[in-house]
Structure formats: structure tokens, C-alpha cells
């Protein structure tokens, strides 16, 4: 049996990446806008700096980072964007890339990005091309050129972190978010049964919010309590503490016992997994796309970034003109809600507990790992600062030395709830396991394997997944051969990926064939490109495709498409392009 190897992921700062030769809609708009400015920018650079040869480098850097911004936040144009949100994206991109090479502490990437943006912003200002608030671009220039980009009156304050796993557990046990989780776990598995109508409807959430009402200060309104109740219940399920699928009503999950215990080191993983799930949900980009909501979300997350760096934002500070009053006020409301849960400390600054910093950054502290190695602990409680959640290096999948002679499954993989339909048809040997099938699905739809996934049997009565502390599965996927699940045509299985975007793929056996001399596994058919990572889910992807069809043709796309997929002049660009050849090349590399 061939062994599994590490999935190769695209090395860039945002998961919404190129698929083959097709670029995202947002990236195309950035390229089109910068292409139009290139001649004027080159002339200006020559006249102001005497070196027009720098133009390609500057515009390439601006284009790449502005594309990440556009894929995460709506971009008005390449001359009109939100400065604070752009600054957040720039820092996140730089930190992502620097994490790829932790030994490189030169800061060259940060210097390159900030220098390129300084030149570009000067160009926009001096040529009266800036379409936003003048104060916004001034703020951005001042911020990226300061010795300390986050120095806006905030005090540098190194965060304390728990020194032992017992300290970490004790810190979490004191947090209001843990208390809220325990109360709702008890409620959901007892009184909550009375309001469970085949799912968590509005009345269920309302009663859940009522159950934890006494845990919140009076200034936390009913709407916020409803939001928190929904978040906490979802996090309990994600962390394997609450099981809503096995029985007719919610039951305790496999990790519930540890979660309910207090001050026991072996409970670290269950509590930390829950804490991180809550943070992931609370800090996710809001579904509402109105400007004020997005602005308050971005600003509050920026303050959290400052706290992570030990530069806590003062609670009382002047509003910059680049922020609206509503967005500024909303950001403070979000921080108050986080504070009510114990995720932000009380005091005059928006500081955060050390354990929250670890949960937000997945800090890998070698010194703390060495200290732990000197004092052996229970395996379930080891490495709280490296988080003990890094999977072991997977052994490389070995190539077959002999031709495969067994049965071959012809599977149809259908992405659900998207219009127009997206599907793949693949041939798969029956001696592979579900972990292998996961890799085949990821490659076939050009996903990056950067989120959680799970397989489900009929009626969702049994789940299969990898060993992962963030999510419990009934069965380890690597132990289940496809021959045990798929025996005849019409046998089915479900696959879920990225529980934020919630991509669901139906797997159906179309035929059981004899092996031929061709590549296995291989793709033999399909329709339309796979959706981009973090594009919002089926509904948002469908809307994105429809909006593209409603626009004028993006003729500049012609330079990026293979000859066989060139658009007919006058027709709209269709993001349905995908390449069987490229999928099979990647499958061949994988298997």
C-alpha cells in the first residue's frame, strides 16, 4: 500500500490562489487597473527618482498585496481602498511569509513591501489619483513609514504566558468563555432537549442565550447574547464536546468529560481546542457586507494584532478621520463583547491573556518545548506552547513498484449547492484509504488542504476523519479502505471541507471496473473550476460567478488562459475553465 505524503500547499500569503492558468476575478481587476496606470507611473518614477527600471518591481509588489486585499475585502479600485484594512492585510501577508522561513529575521520582505507602497502612495498623491479620503492616505503613509508601525500611542507591554500546562489550564478555567461553554454544554444535553426540533432553530438559540444571561454584564444586550450562544454551541461541537449527529437530541461528545473537569493538566487539549474554535468563529469575517460592519470588524482585529505584539491599544483614544464614527464605535462594542468573555483583559488598554495570544498565533516556542522535555508529562498535556497539535511528519507516499491489478472505482464527485454545477469524475484503486481519497478530492478541486475536513456515512450516522485535536471523528480515515465502503454502483459517501465556507461534496460510485494500464488515480471528466479557498461558500461563489457574467468581458484575461480556453470575442469570461491534464499531473505527483 502506498504511503501518504505531505500535501504541498501554495506558498503565498492568502489561500485564494491561482487555479492553473485561471486567475481570480479580484486579482484580474487589480491587474487591469495597474496595467492602465503603468505608463504614467513609469514616467513619474523616472522624473521623480531617475530610475524607471524600478517600476515593474514596485507594481508587482503592490499588485500582489493589493490582490490579497481584494480577495479578502471588497476593492473599489486600485486608487481607492480602505487604508486601515489594507495595512492589516499587508502585515498579515508579511507575517505569513516570514513564518514560512522563521530563520530569516532580516526584515527584508517588510522593507520591500512598505517601500513599494510608499512609492505607490506618493505617486497617487502627487498625481491627484487618490480617490479616497485624503486623511486616510496620509495616515497610511505615516504608519508604514514610522519606526514602529503600531506606535499610535500604545505602550509596548510583553505578554505573560503560562509557564506550565497546569497554569494554562488554570488560566482557561478562570475565563468567562470556558464557564459559558460548561453552562451551555450542560444545558444542551439536558433542558435544551425540550427546544431541539431536529436542529438548533431560533427558539433553541433564544433559550440557550437565556440560560447564560446571568454570566454577562448588563451592557451586553440580548442580540449579543444570542450571537455568543450560537458561537459557543458551534465551538462545542467543533471541539468534540457536543454531539448533535449520533442521537435524536444533542449528547455529550467524546471530549466532554475532560472539558467539565477543573484544574487537571490532562484537560488541556479539550479546553484549548474549544478556546481556539470560539476565537476562530468570533473573529471570522462577518456575513454582513455593509461598510460599517466590515470596518468595525477590521479595526477590532487590528487592535488584537497590536495586543499580540505586546502593544495594547488604549481604550480611550482619538478616532482617526479615516474611520467612520459608526465603524469606530462598532469596533469598541466588539472589544467589549470579547472582554465580557474574558478574551480581552480588563483595564485601560485592550490587552489579551497570554493563553489567548497562543490560541491566536499558534506560537511555537522552542525554549518552552525544551523546558517541557526536561520534565516528562502526560502525553495528552504535553507542549502547550507548541500547542501539541502539529501533526507528525507524514511519511512520503511511495510509488507502486508493480502495476495495479485490482478493481477500480469510477467515482463522481459533485460539489453541492453551487450553480452552475461543479463536478469531477475520477478512477480510483480500491486499495486506497479514505485519507488518500481526501487527497484526491483536494487535488481534483484544486483546494489547498488548509482547513478541517470529514467524511460522513449515510444519514450522517458515522464520521471518518484524520486524527486531529480540533475535531473528533468516529473512525480514523486512514484505517478504512475504499473497498470496505464502496462495493457497487450507487454506493455513496459525503465529504465536508472548510466548516466556515462549508463545502459539501457528494461521492457516488458510478461503476466498478477492471484495472487498465493507465495512471491511477486519474481524472477522466468534470465541469468548471473548483471554487477559490475562503471565497465564502456555495452561495457566495454562485453570486461571484453571476456577477462576473453580468460584467463586460475581461479581455485582459486572454493573456492568462491556455489556447484551448480562449474566450470568444464579445462573450463574457467564464470561470468554468479547468484542466484534466493539470489535475492528472498533480495526482501523479501525489501518488
Q: What can you tell me about this protein's structure?
A:
An eight-stranded mixed beta sheet has the order 9-8-7-10-11-5-6-12. It has a two-stranded antiparallel ribbon with strand order 1-4. A two-stranded antiparallel sheet has the order 2-3. The protein starts with 24 loop residues before the first helix and ends with a helix. The protein is an alpha+beta fold. The protein contains 19 helices and twelve strands. It has three domains: 25-152; 165-361, no CATH class; 407-547 and 579-590, Roll (Structural Genomics Hypothetical 15.5 Kd Protein In mrcA-pckA Intergenic Region, Chain A), CATH 3.10.290.
Observed structural traits:
alpha+beta; 12 strands; 10% strand; globular; 591 residues; Structural Genomics Hypothetical 15.5 Kd Protein In mrcA-pckA Intergenic Region, Chain A
Short structural summary:
Helix 2 (55-72) crosses helix 4 (108-126) and helix 12 (291-308) crosses helix 13 (325-340).
Number of strands: 12
From the helix content, strand content and strand pairing, which structural class follows?
alpha+beta
Average pLDDT works out at 78
In whole angstroms, the N-to-C terminal distance is 11 Å
- Assembly annotation: single chain
Low-confidence stretches: 1-22, 147-157, 363-394, 552-573
What is the topology?
Elements: H1 25-49, H2 55-72, H3 83-100, H4 108-126, H5 134-144, E1 155-156, H6 165-174, H7 176-188, H8 202-211, H9 222-238, E2 242-243, E3 251-252, H10 256-260, H11 268-282, H12 291-308, E4 311-312, H13 325-340, H14 354-361, H15 366-374, E5 407-415, E6 422-429, H16 434-444, E7 453-456, E8 463-465, E9 475-476, H17 482-485, E10 492-497, E11 503-514, E12 522-527, H18 538-550, H19 580-590
Parallel strand pairs: 8-9
Antiparallel strand pairs: 1-4, 2-3, 5-6, 5-11, 6-12, 7-8, 7-10, 10-11
Helix pairs in contact: 1-2, 2-3, 2-4, 3-4, 6-11, 7-9, 8-9, 9-11, 12-13, 16-19
InterPro entries: MM3350-like_sf, Plasmid_pRiA4b_Orf3-like
Protein name: Plasmid pRiA4b ORF-3 family protein
Domain Plasmid pRiA4b Orf3-like: 407-581
Amino acid at each position: 500500500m502506498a504511503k501518504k505524503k505531505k500535501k504541498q500547499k501554495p506558498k503565498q500569503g492568502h489561500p485564494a490562489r491561482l487555479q492553473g492558468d485561471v486567475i481570480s476575478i479580484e486579482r484580474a481587476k487589480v491587474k487591469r487597473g495597474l496595467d492602465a496606470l503603468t505608463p504614467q507611473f513609469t514616467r513619474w518614477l523616472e522624473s521623480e527618482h531617475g530610475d524607471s527600471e524600478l517600476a515593474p518591481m514596485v507594481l508587482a509588489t503592490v499588485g500582489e498585496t493589493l490582490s490579497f486585499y481584494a480577495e479578502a475585502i471588497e476593492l473599489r479600485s486600485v486608487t481607492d481602498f480602505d487604508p486601515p484594512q489594507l495595512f492589516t492585510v499587508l502585515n498579515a501577508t508579511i507575517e505569513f511569509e516570514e513564518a514560512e522561513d522563521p530563520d530569516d529575521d532580516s526584515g527584508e520582505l517588510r522593507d520591500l513591501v512598505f517601500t513599494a507602497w510608499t512609492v505607490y502612495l506618493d505617486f497617487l498623491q502627487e498625481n491627484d489619483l487618490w480617490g479616497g479620503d485624503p486623511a486616510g492616505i496620509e495616515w497610511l503613509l505615516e504608519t508604514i513609514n514610522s519606526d514602529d508601525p503600531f506606535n499610535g500611542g500604545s505602550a509596548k507591554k510583553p505578554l505573560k504566558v503560562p509557564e506550565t500546562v497546569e497554569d494554562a489550564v488554570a488560566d482557561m478555567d478562570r475565563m468567562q468563555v470556558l464557564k459559558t461553554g460548561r453552562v451551555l454544554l450542560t444545558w444542551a444535553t439536558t433542558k435544551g432537549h425540550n427546544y431541539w426540533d431536529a436542529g438548533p432553530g431560533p427558539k433553541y438559540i433564544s433559550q440557550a442565550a437565556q440560560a447564560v444571561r446571568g454570566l454577562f454584564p448588563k451592557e451586553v444586550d440580548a442580540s449579543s447574547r444570542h450571537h455568543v450562544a450560537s458561537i459557543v454551541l458551534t465551538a462545542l461541537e467543533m471541539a468534540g464536546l457536543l454531539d448533535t449527529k449520533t442521537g435524536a437530541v444533542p449528547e455529550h461528545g467524546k471530549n466532554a468529560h475532560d472539558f467539565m473537569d477543573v484544574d487537571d493538566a490532562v484537560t488541556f487539549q479539550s479546553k484549548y481546542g474549544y478556546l481556539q474554535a470560539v476565537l476562530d468563529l468570533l473573529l471570522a469575517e462577518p456575513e454582513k457586507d455593509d461598510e460599517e460592519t466590515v470596518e468595525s470588524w477590521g479595526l477590532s482585529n487590528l487592535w488584537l494584532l497590536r495586543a499580540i505584539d505586546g502593544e495594547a491599544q488604549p481604550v480611550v483614544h482619538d478616532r482617526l478621520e479615516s474611520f467612520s464614527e459608526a465603524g469606530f464605535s462598532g469596533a469598541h462594542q466588539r472589544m467589549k463583547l470579547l472582554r465580557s468573555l474574558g478574551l480581552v483583559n480588563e483595564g485601560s488598554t485592550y490587552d489579551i491573556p497570554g493563553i489567548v495570544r497562543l490560541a491566536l498565533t499558534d506560537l511555537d516556542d522552542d525554549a518552552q518545548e525544551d523546558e517541557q522535555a526536561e520534565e516528562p508529562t502526560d502525553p495528552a498535556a504535553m507542549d502547550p506552547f507548541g500547542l501539541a497539535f502539529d501533526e507528525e511528519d507524514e511519511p512520503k507516499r511511495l510509488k507502486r513498484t508493480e502495476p495495479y491489478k485490482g478493481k477500480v472505482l469510477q467515482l463522481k464527485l459533485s460539489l453541492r449547492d453551487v450553480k452552475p454545477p461543479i463536478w469531477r469524475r475520477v478512477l480510483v484503486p480500491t486499495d486506497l484509504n479514505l485519507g488518500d481519497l481526501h487527497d484526491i478530492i483536494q487535488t481534483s478541486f484544486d483546494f489547498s488542504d488548509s482547513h478541517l475536513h470529514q467524511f460522513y456515512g449515510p444519514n450522517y450516522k458515522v464520521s471518518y476523519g484524520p486524527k486531529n485535536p480540533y475535531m473528533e471523528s468516529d473512525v480514523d480515515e486512514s484505517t478504512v479502505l475504499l473497498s470496505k465502503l464502496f462495493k457497487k454502483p450507487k454506493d455513496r459517501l459525503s465529504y465536508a471541507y472548510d466548516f466556515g465556507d462549508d463545502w459539501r461534496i457528494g461521492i457516488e460510485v458510478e461503476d466498478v471496473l477492471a484495472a487498465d494500464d493507465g495512471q491511477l488515480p486519474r481524472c477522466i471528466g468534470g465541469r468548471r473550476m473548483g471554487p477559490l479557498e475562503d471565497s465564502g461558500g456555495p452561495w457566495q461563489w454562485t453570486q461571484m460567478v453571476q456577477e462576473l457574467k453580468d460584467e463586460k468581458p475581461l479581455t485582459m484575461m486572454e493573456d492568462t488562459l491556455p489556447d484551448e480556453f480562449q474566450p470568444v470575442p464579445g462573450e463574457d469570461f467564464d470561470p468554468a475553465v479547468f484542466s484534466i491534464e493539470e489535475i492528472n499531473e498533480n495526482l501523479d505527483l501525489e501518488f
